[in-house]
Structures are given as structure tokens and as C-alpha cells.
Amino acid sequence: MATQEVTAPVIAGQSRESVGRRWHLKLPLIGLLLPAMLLLLWWLGAAAGALDATFFSTPSAVLRTLGNLLFSGVLLSDFWDSLQRILTGAFIGFTAGLLLGGITGYVRQIERILDPTIQALRAVPAVAWIPFLILTLGIDNAPKIALIAIALFFITYVNTFSGVRGTDQKLIELAQAYRLPRSLVLRRIIMPAALPQVFVGLRLAAAIGWIAAVFSEILVGNNGLGVLLNDGRSLGRPDQTIVLMIVLAVAGKSSDGLIRLIERRVTRWRATFEGV
Amino acid sequence: MGTTLIFEHVSKGFPGCGLVLDSFEVTVQPGSFVSLVGPTACGKSTLLRLILGLDLPDEGRIRFEGDSAGRADVCAIAFQEPRLLPWLTVHDNIDLVLSRHSSNRVGRVNELLNLVGLADFKNAFPKVLSGGMAQRVSLARALANEPDVLLLDEPFSAVDALTRMRLQDALVRIYMGRQRTTVMVTHDIDEALLTSQQVIVLSTRPAHIVDIVDVKAGYPRDRTDGNLFSLKTRILKGLGVVAMDQQDGAGI
After folding, report:
1. What CATH number matches the domain at B10-83+149-226, 3.20.20.80, 2.40.50.140, 3.20.20.10, 3.40.50.300?
2. How far apart, in Å, are the Cα atoms of A181 and each of A187, A225, B36, B99, B100?
3. Cα(A212)–Cα(A243) distance, rounded to whole angstroms?
4. Which end of chain B has fewer beta carbons closer than 10 Å to its terminal beta carbon, N or C?
């Protein structure tokens, strides 16, 4: 009885510690395990002839195409075209969503006036805007930027709104009890309280930004990643479509990682579950 | 000197739970420490909310009388839970409520943190504080603008017994430093007897005054004082606890 009581915690402590250390050591690399295995499967499948190269291409062909696209400068210039659109559209859509979501969240009367219209417009799928945007803005940069801005606006609006409304009523009451000026309540209570939810919106928005950009470029475009992707299809070049998918995966992952990094910096005060 | 707090025929009801206060009258003498004890949900916290102006009475009024009466920040409160802003450091949480006109805000915050013994945690975020520490920050914040009326809403009910005793001692020490009008809502009769000059015993809703117990002993008081014990019996009788036990013949 007595020995059990003594040994049990020791074993638990040891195993917890060693497991923790093992996981932490491999943490930076462990995420690469799955892609590496998929790559290996693809390579083996292609080499054994189990995967038809006309549809699935081969890792070596994809690598070659990546090299060609990089050295010719095509990939970089098209990447830059897409990125510029996303950043411009995101700036417009995010700023508008932040402002309107914040104001409607803060002032009930403005919510009553604006929110029904915004919610109705939000119900229109972003892609359904495309014909209208092409008719009104042509087929150059403007409709694509507009599409990105529209898609991002709604997602930022909804998240900012619910972030503001999610402010703990007890903290507002505290502000009332101490008669804090409105500017201070906004700056020191409501804005920080809404911040985590705004970041949720931003992460979704970044993903949607890439989707909207590529989609609009595939539909109408003369430059951008979507055009390269579409060329791959029309020329029957699966290697090129795969290169572009990989580029988009890396770009999306990087933008998400950047946002998470900023999020962690500015919400250090949070005391939430971080996973076991 | 000091602010007198006068309740004149104050009535307050809430939809769905009827009348909480019915023509409530009481006068809190300037500079005195008054505790309100009573059954749960009898309207004690409502009284504090009315004093703060967070709620308005349906009838009657609450008057402040004194040299500084009429000033906006005449009252300050420490809530049941610390209510610190999680995104502000301990320093910034106190600085937040400090009057914008105060000249030496940094010095004042340091002074307050020294008063509650948390100078080392100035730059900590609330998430690293224990319950007792957070409540001390809340108390420091309540004292920040030197309010004439200090309101305490069961400030120590959520901390462990030992921490609670330390916080009670700190509160008495702070009160001895400046005898400002203090109104504390509490469930803890010992706490009320240790800190207050007057204990007001309230009935169930709508709250009316069952008994007013004057505690004459000087500060600091001894927890084991026999006189306090006899007053405790009187308060328990007022709350109906002792009487009920005798009726049931059960005891505790």
C-alpha cells in the first residue's frame, strides 16, 4: 500500500517529463513528416507506374517545372501580381469591415440601420458578385481587387461585430462604476476585448483572400497565379498545376503563420487553454 | 469632514423578481464603517449599485451630504470578483481609473501597490495573480482616487480562509489610515464584526432592517474577543438562524 503510493507519482512524473521532452524536441520537424511521406508515396507510385504521369505527373517533372518557372521569372512576377491584388483588396475590405463592424457593434442604433442590409448582402455568395463586377469594372485589376475586398469585408465585419459584442458586461459595468470616459472605454476595454475575435476573422480572411484572387484570375485574367494554374490545365501540364498548388499552399501557410505570430504577440495576456 | 450617505424611501424592483427594496431608509454617518448582512439575494448588492448610480431607484432617492458631495467620483467600489482587465498589467489596471488630471500618476500607482504589498507585481498580467492578489489589486484600484465613500461588495468571499483574514487585516489598516465612509456587503458575520462600527441586519426580499448592531470596540480588533462573540449571536438571531435551529431542535 505504502510503496504503491510512493512509486505511482514518480512513474507518472517520469513518463510525463520524458514524453514532453520527446515531443518538444521534434516539434519543428514533426510537421514535415506527413508531407514527406506523401511525397515518397507519389514518387514510388510514379516510378512503379501505378500513377499515370499524364494526370499525376512525377516529382522530378514538377521540380523541373518549378525551376523553369522560377528562373524565367514568370512565377515571381505572377506571384507578385496576385499578392498585390490580395494586399490591396485586403486593405480595403479589412479596414471597411473593421470600421463598420466596430461601429455597428458599439452603437445599437447604427446596428438597427445598417446590419439588416449588410446581412442580406452577405448572403450573396462572393462569387455571385463576379458577373456584376465584370460588367461594371471591366476585366482588369479592379474587379479582382473588388471581389477580394468584398469577400474580406463580410468576414471581418461579422467577426469584429461579435468581438465587440463579446465584451464582458462586467467590465463595462466596472467602467460605468468608475465613470471612465467613453474614449478610454473604447480604447482600453472594447478594442482589446474584441481583438482575439478580430484575429479569428483575419486568419479566415487571409485564406479567403487567396481563394478569391486565384478564382477571379482563373475566370478572367492575363496575369497572376490563377492564370498560370489555368495555363497548366489548358496545356495539359499537370506538373505546372501541381507547382502552382504547392506555391499556393506555401503562400497560404506563410500568411497564416505571420498572422498567428502577430496574434500571439498582441494577445500575450490571454489565459486560455493551449492544448496538452 | 466625510460624506454622509442618506437613503430616503428608496424602492427598487426588477421585472420578474418583484420588489427588492421597499421604502428603504438608512443613514450612514460620515467616516463610519457599515456592514450590510442578510440572506442571499435580499438586495444588498442592489443597494451598492444604487449608490454607484449603476441603477436608479424606482422611488425615493439617495443623498450624499458633505464637503465634496456632488463630485462625480465620490464613490469607488471593489466588486465580489476582482474584475481586472486581463490585457492590462497590474500597474495599468490601477492607472486606468486614476483621474486624468492627477499630476503624478506613476507615483500614485506605486504608492497604492506598496499599500497592498504588490509592488513586485507591477508589470504582471492578471493571469499570473492568485485570487487574493487580484483582489488586493482591486482594492488598490478602489482607493486610487481617494474616494469619500468606499463600497465593498463581498470583496473577500472568493478567497481561502487564511487569505481572507489577511485581506481583512489589510482593510482595517487602510481604514485606520483614513476613516472614510465605507459600506461593505458581506455574508461573513465575523468579517463584519472585525471591520465595522455598525452592522445592519437585513431581512429577505424586500429588504428591510431587522437589527442595527453597533460595534464599539476600537481598531485593530481581536478576532477572539468575547464581546464580539455575543454580538455575533445577536446578529445570527436577527438573521433567524439561531431561532430556526431551536425550533427544529436540530442544532448544527
Report:
1. 3.40.50.300
2. 10, 49, 31, 10, 10
3. 19
4. C
- Please, are residues A205 and A156 in contact by the beta-carbon 8 Å criterion? yes
Question: Is residue B27 within 8 Å of B5, Cβ to Cβ?
Answer: yes
Average pLDDT, stretch B83-104?
Answer: 90
pLDDT at A21: 55
The pTM of the full predicted model, rounded to 2 decimals, is 0.83
Q: Could you tell me what percentage of chain A is helix, strand and coil, using 3-state DSSP and rounding each to the nearest 5? A: 85, 0, 15
Q: For A207-242, how does the pLDDT look when each residue is reduced to its tens digit (9 = 90+)?
A: 999 999 999 999 888 899 999 999 999 999 999 999
Locate the domains of chain B by residue range: 10-83+149-226
A contact residues 193-222, partner B, Cβ 8 Å cutoff: 193, 195
What chain A residue is nearest to B76 in terms of C-alpha separation?
A: A178
Contact B148, B169 (CB under 8 A): no
All three cell numbers of B7: 437613503
Q: How many CB pairs under 8 A join A and B?
A: 47
Contact: A173, B54; criterion CB under 8 Å: yes
Closest CA in chain A for residue B151: A177
**Contact call for residues B96 and A184 (beta carbons, < 8 A):** yes
pLDDT band at A9 (very low <50, low <70, confident <90, very high): very low
A110-142: b or e for each residue (b if 16 or more CB lie within 10 Å)?
Answer: ebeeebeebeeebeeebeebbeebbeeeeeebe
Which residue, among A235, A225, A253, A255, has the nearest Cα to A69 in the 3D structure?
A225
pLDDT tens digit sequence for A43-57: 999 888 888 888 889
Checking ipTM against 0.90, whether it exceeds it is no
Rg of chain A in Å (alpha carbons): 25
